Amino acid sequence: MNYLNATRVGGMLSRAPGSPPRAARKEKAVITSSETTMREHKARGAVKKVASVAAFAFAVGCGGPPPPPYKPVADVKQLMQGIVDPSADVVWESVATIFTKDHVEERRPRTKEEWDHVRSNAMILTESGNLLMMAPRAKDGGDWMKMAQGLVDTASVALRAADAKDVDGLLKVGGEIDEACENCHKKYWPNY
Prior knowledge:
mainly alpha; 5 helices
């Protein structure tokens, strides 16, 4: 077998100067193993892309059961009055230092039942941020969602503090929860 003096340039086989044109050649080009490996690699990449697209299409088309049919009952104001405010009040009032003429009162949970009560309300407050993000309560997809997520984030810190029976952590996060609430109220409920 005669081997053609050829080189591969940019994926194309080009003939060396002085070699006869392709139609006139009877010789076969020699493709090196690195070129074969490159072709195989490109072919595998193409197959992976097609398989990924097919898998995605299948998952979307046959993606299991439909999402649950959420049916919000309370509007934002009712949610605030019935769930958010009462649970926030429990968290805020659970830890305090109260000065009077006669003495200083250190308010904090002391028993397991008191800590459980604070923990339950911190959990309710945390989950209420998720409820605020549900349609039709969500006012927009921007600041509303960020502020509701801010409530989830800060209230979850209160939940962890209650789990750890961390009085100082609970006191500190109370101010952060208040700030998260106030920022949202200023924008979406300015006359509350």
